[in-house]
Q: What sequence folds into this?
């Protein structure tokens, strides 16, 4: 009972230390706010859109920004603002699942490689080398080419090229945690390997993984839009920023607004994740702080 | 040193093997069975069986893999769509992609190093802030969107540069900028960090104390040492550039390997996808290995490791 309480107290104070360090970082706060705003928009977006994002209205096709349509309308007369808002949901859903899947695979492989070591480690690391030999977008294209476009397949594509970085980071972190006295102590009192990995090593090896996951959210959003731009993204008529920009390519002269707003939406949220990731890195790993 | 080089080169063998097997396998399991795709719609069962025999798809997996490998080098592998030898089709496009990548590297390294050095020398000034803001935005901008914006400004409004195609020097400027600018952002960030590190060393203080002009100290002493990690990152950017090239080529209609692969995805030309991705991945691996070796040559501390 008492031990339990202590543990809670300890966690609480670690969180507080991290929050206090985060507060001092203006970029980190700005990033956090941007990410939170996008997240809220992604969740409640479909209730706040001024127009239905998917329904065509050919009478108001290709209208430049005006009071009724602040971001203008597209080829089918759909409101660009509504499509940009709806796109947030698409990007967030896919990237959250993709990063979660990548973290899970990476944690499993990284923990086993780091904890077991020896030839198991060697084999797993060479296996990762093969995946890292592919430029990321190419691997994603190959996977979407096999599985076909669609949300779930994009999640898989992003997870496949992201998990090696998580596995490597986890492995390095596990190796450094492994040599701590409390791990030796757990071994001495006869804890099983599984329990040592899950209860003693993983929780203490997580902070670099959290940082990487934040940064990877940005990469995932960039990849989703890149696939969309290449025509390998989500299926029409679902709104997705990259797909919107692919359509805009043909109307650069007559309707330049189509190519502006979805792009700004991407840059802002990716910037947010990058700022947040950098700030988390400084807060969680103070020793590695920027020289 | 020699053992390091040999070890690094030997490592290429398992990687090449793994990459080629993976390329071969992932597309072997393509849904819709390749023979059916080749035969097209409305093909009879016999047609499909014939194609399986002609293309060797009825052979055991390892025989197909070996045929695939041999086919790449002999140029026997043909595109399903055009019937041409893939080697023949891919060669000029490979040149196109490499041209694009090199032009971008020139842009990204000159601009990146320049901004990074300025930011470090004038640390915490407006120059530093501006350079780092540029670096952050550059690293968060999708390559293809930057391409669209550049077309909008230089081709649509100013009408000074072409928006696509491949005719003469002018047509490579926008694609190279599109690919080079985001990568220069990364180079700038690293140059700044590396330069700050170098400037805080004792030998710099000593040199300044001797009365050597500041400009000379910065460029001759600090920059020379600061550039070692930067060279590595520029090399590693090559992979980023190969990825970005796929998108840039699509924006500008630049005839390169990336666009060749994307087109093949739409026509389900699975042999072209396999070979295209394999060649790009191998280029990436070879460049990374050369960068590692170059790094060892530049930084003597690493040679023993």
A:
């Amino acid at each position: 009972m008492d031990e339990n309480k202590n543990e809670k107290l300890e966690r609480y104070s670690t969180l507080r230390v991290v929050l206090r360090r985060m507060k001092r970082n203006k970029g980190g706060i700005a990033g956090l706010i941007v990410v939170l705003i996008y997240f809220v928009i992604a969740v409640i977006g479909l209730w706040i859109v001024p127009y239905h994002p998917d329904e065509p209205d050919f009478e108001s096709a290709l209208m430049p920004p005006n009071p009724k349509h602040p971001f203008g309308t597209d080829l089918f007369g759909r409101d660009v603002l509504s499509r940009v808002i709806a796109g947030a949901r698409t990007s967030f859903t896919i990237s959250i699942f993709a990063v979660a899947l990548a973290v899970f695979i990476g944690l499993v492989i990284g923990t086993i490689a780091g904890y077991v070591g020896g030839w198991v480690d060697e084999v797993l690391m060479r296996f990762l080398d093969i995946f890292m030999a592919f430029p990321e977008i190419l691997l994603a294209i190959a996977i979407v080419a096999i599985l076909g476009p669609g949300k779930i397949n994009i999640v898989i594509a992003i997870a496949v090229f992201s998990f090696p970085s998580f596995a490597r980071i986890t492995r390095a972190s596990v190796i450094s945690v492994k040599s701590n006295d409390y791990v030796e102590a757990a071994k001495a009192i006869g804890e099983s390997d599984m329990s040592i990995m899950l209860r003693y090593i993983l929780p203490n090896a997580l902070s670099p993984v959290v940082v990487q996951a934040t940064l990877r959210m940005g990469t995932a959003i960039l990849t989703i839009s890149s696939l969309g731009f290449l025509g390998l993204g989500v299926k029409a008529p679902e709104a997705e920023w990259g797909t919107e920009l692919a359509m805009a390519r043909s109307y650069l002269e007559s309707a330049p607004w189509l190519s502006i707003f979805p792009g700004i939406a991407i840059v802002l949220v990716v910037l947010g994740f990058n700022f947040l990731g950098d700030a988390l890195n400084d807060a969680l790993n103070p020793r590695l702080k920027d020289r | 040193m020699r053992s390091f080089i040999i070890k690094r080169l030997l490592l290429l063998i398992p990687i090449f093997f793994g990459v080629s097997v993976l390329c071969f396998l992932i597309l072997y399991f393509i849904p819709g069975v390749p023979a059916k795709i080749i035969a097209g719609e409305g093909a009879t069962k016999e047609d499909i069986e014939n194609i399986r025999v002609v293309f060797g798809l009825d052979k055991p997996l390892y025989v197909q893999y070996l045929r695939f490998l041999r086919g790449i080098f002999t140029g026997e592998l043909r595109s399903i769509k055009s019937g041409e030898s893939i080697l023949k089709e891919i060669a000029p496009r490979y040149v196109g992609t490499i041209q694009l990548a090199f032009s971008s590297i020139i842009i990204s390294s000159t601009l990146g190093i320049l901004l990074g050095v300025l930011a470090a020398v004038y640390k915490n000034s407006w120059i530093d802030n501006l350079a780092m803001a540029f670096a952050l935005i550059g690293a968060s901008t999708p390559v293809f969107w930057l391409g669209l914006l550049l077309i909008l400004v230089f081709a649509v409004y100013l009408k000074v540069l072409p928006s696509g195609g491949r005719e003469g020097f002018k047509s490579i400027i926008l694609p190279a900028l599109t690919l080079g600018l985001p990568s220069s952002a990364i180079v700038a960030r690293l140059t700044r960090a590396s330069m700050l590190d170098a400037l805080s060393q004792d030998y710099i203080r000593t040199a300044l104390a001797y009365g050597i002009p500041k400009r000379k100290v910065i460029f001759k002493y600090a920059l020379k040492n600061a550039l070692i990690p930067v060279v590595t990152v520029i090399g590693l950017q090559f992979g980023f550039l190969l990825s970005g090239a796929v998108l840039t080529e699509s924006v500008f209609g630049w005839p390169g390997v990336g666009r060749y692969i994307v087109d093949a995805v739409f026509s389900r030309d699975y042999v072209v996808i396999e070979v295209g991705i394999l060649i790009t991945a191998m280029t990436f691996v070879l460049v990374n290995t050369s960068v590692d070796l170059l790094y060892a040559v530049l930084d003597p501390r690493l040679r023993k490791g």
In short: Residues 96-304 of chain B form a domain with the MetI-like fold fold (CATH 1.10.3720.10).
